[in-house]
Amino acid sequence: MPTIDMEELIEELMQCRRCGICRNAVYDDMGFDGVCPIWRNSTGFEPDFMRGKIIIALALLSGELEKTAENVKALFQCTLCGNCTEICAASFDPKEAMETVRYVLNDAPNPVRDTLAKRVIDTNTPYEEGQEIKQNWLNELDFEVPNQSDVVYFVGCTAATKLHQIPIATAKILQAANVEFAVMENEPCCGSVLLRTGRADEAEENALTVAESIKSTGAKRVVVSCAGCLKTLRKDYAEKFGIEMPEIVHIVEFAQKLIESGDLNLKPLENSTKVTYHDPCHMGRELNVYDAPRSILESIPNLELVEMHPNRAQALCCGAGGGLRSYDSELAKKIAAERVRHAETLDVSALTSACPFCELNFVSGSKKEESEIEVLDIVELLSRCL
Amino acid sequence: MDASIIKQIEDIVGPEYVSTREDVLLTYSSSASMICDTAKPDVVVRPRTAEEVSKLLKLANKYRIPVTTRSGGSSLQEEVIPHSGGMIIEMMRFTDIKLFEDLRSVKVGAGITFGQLDKFLLEHDLWLPMCPESALVATVVGNVAVNGAGPGSSVYGSIAELVLGMEVVLPNGEIIQTGSEANPHAPGPFLRYAFGPDLTGLFIGSLGAFGVITSVSMKTFKRMKHFHHETYGFHSIDAAERFLLEIQEHEIHTVFASLYEDRVLDLFMSMLGDEYGIPEYEWPLRTVSMTIGRLREDELNSDIEMAKKICEDLGGYVIGITELPKGEWELKMWTFVRACYVHGWHWRTLYHHQPPSGNRKSVEKIWEVMDEYGFLGHTAGFLSGHASMNMYPHLYADPEDPEEQQKIRDGHQDLARRLFKTGAVPFKLAPYWKDILQEIPDYMDLLRMIKEVLDPNGIMNPGVLGGI
Q: What is the distance between the alpha carbons of residues B285 and B268, in angstroms, rounded to a whole number?
């Protein structure tokens, strides 16, 4: 992590003019229909959206507020979704500033963050299930996957631990397109959660190990399933740590090219299906990947894509990011439930995404809502068309 | 605040909507008002109904707790800075909207922003034809409480002119309804001036000093779809000011008309010209940036022709740069406010009204004060009604330079004094007008008398109304 220039950080935070546009602006011309998912789903006091969080951050940094668990709560009750950055009229990036504040204040009490960090460092995964089960999904394939190849499929902790259907579908897609690919024997965690929760030093150390492990596979291209892995490996490693990586692509970006080149042919879905698509923050706002997932969905015969509003750069977050799902899981699920309710109004049978972490949270939100809507990753739909 | 009082507050609204947390109180100690003193309340409460507000005010009266009402928190003149030891009543949970299509009106709760209302009315092909520049964050009720103006005001006046009635919780807890809705048998809001004196007007611009406005009923209009954006150049101040008067006299439907001095436009353009795609131009002494809006295209075309003729008859000329007025009309916070944000400074503003002929006096005074005190700033103004302009001087300071900020505070106070002498009028009595208003003691005595009758214990935002 580069050394933080405190003067610069304070100057950044002082760019907030406290207008409050980051709370719930409805701006039809620019596609906004609300901004902060936390504010919408909490009791709605000022610390529940970015304006209040910045006031608190400044007070914590100056010592006006003591670094107690209660006083730092607002900093961690944030998904870092970046919708505030998208609408902010001032010349700074509130979401990025908040991530930096978490790093500067990483000695502030937050046992959840500490547990996550310890797990990643000790066991290569933020999940308590441990590293051992991360390859179990391979047992469900009817073909072998090597450990060395030009193309390496970096599964990601969430898909490998919680949502086996995603790596299985991804593997089937790659095989159907005759792409030779490998899976790492001891795939490490990309370290996204370390970065988001303020453990950037550990994240850098972890990143160096990850980069080395990937290099040892001989990969020229790394395919990921997770929007968080995509952002971390493609953007953060280079920008924050100066680590050079092979080409990092999301499976939807890769599959789009395979479909366009004719290497991946899709059969029609058995039944006519109407779905909607949720833009993961790390893929959309962070990396501007909006068209590839839509292009794939539109290329599936017998499938109709209906857009949620807001969408793309103004899309509301699923609620899982920024460490919130661990820090305040009830709030995270409430945010997901709101998004599920929204999808339900569109009369669709499925809510799709391209991020296992979004999917995991939507499944929780769906349960909370007792919704019958199917929550799916795009690759799951694609694999039904092979 | 005593724990037993907090418990009583929790019993009224539910404990989850009451906070005494140190971090929460800190976030309510300030608002979008910058370079001013802040103060921490003892408690923040988020009620949902007028009945809850009523109980809160009765409690506040019982224990003599100063109350500050707040909704969007975007006000710029210290209106919602609380009192130490006081209670903030935050109104963002009042989110009801009720449309009365047959009455051409809509009733909105105190937590509804202009952006939310606009989206709602759009579905009915209607609109509220005026909004403040802070429309995306400002609530309609909050804007009524400060009597704001903005795009749309050039035809429709300040927000006050669009209000048909309101529900107010008086300081003693009594809930009253003004306008036609005061009649429980009325179909809804259709007339403001009902039952004698204009009680609605008493609360417009009252800054929360006379009670808590929980909802307002507003006029709605068929949504306008035909707009024309244009800039008009003048080499004489007289001609530019006269132009603004004549477009009003000829009832040209100018929904927004701003008057800029050349050096102010140069400053804006240096900050934002490229971003908005405004071509480089040698701006004349005065430029009017104007949006004409009409329901029908033929009316619009007629207005365009007439505006051009008036301009040319006065010796002016059509500049033809449309991006500036288009941005002012369409981009809301992304024009004026963005211009204030982009350079990194904090600011104080000093909203006031002048007739078009007084515009130059405001411009002169701010330059005088900037030169004498040595800080940066500017002013421009827009037509805000029949024959008035809303002037909005901005005074800039480095957010981390206390000396410069003190200069701004001193200069701001001095500027207010000088502007008053030019005949300018505040449309809301922000606290800094206090000393200046000693020149109109009888007027202020009457206001004080009204305040004492309504709020004998002085709990409602004490001091906010020009010291009252």
A: 15
